[in-house]
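Sanity check record (used in CI):
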Amino acid sequence: MAKSALLVMDVQRDIVSIADDGSGYLRRLRRAIDGARAAGIPVIYVVIGLRPGDPEVSARNKPITNAVEAGLFTEGAPGTEIHPDVAPRHGDVVVTKRRGSAFSGSDFDLVLRARGIDSLVLTGIATSGVVLSTLCRAVDLDLGLTVLPDACLDTDAEVHRVLTEKLFPQWAYVVAVEDWLKAIARR
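Expected output for Cysteine hydrolase:
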């Protein structure tokens, strides 16, 4: 039987302030987190954090370079904290990554293997960033995948729609938060 984990990715103060469109995103994500916990599904938080001085930043990596120029993602800065509306509980795993994917520059794969997790439920900001990057890597690792599209957010609504309606269903189950909560409550 598959052992799942809910991933809450890049839901950090600065990122939320840029991407949140006032549609109730954090409330929906909070429902998914609470439902996962009630069903005994571990919640793993993933954040992007770059060391002060940015030793891991290459000028060839346009998204990371642009973020650094905008003053984002420095470890320890208030803006890199997980948003308080969805903050982890004591004992929750928080993985720090150095690139777009949860797997890049982190110990995420080690955490999954140590816990016997072979199926992921993806949420986060941005759909076209961490969600897409993590999904691509997870497909190659033969992990079971579910995406909660209304617990993902992107600054470009059309990109979000195309990814969640056209691309992601080719690789993962794509299920609204409320439908996923009903399904896990029946287990």
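The mean pLDDT is 92. If this sentence no longer matches the regenerated tokens, the check is flagged for review.
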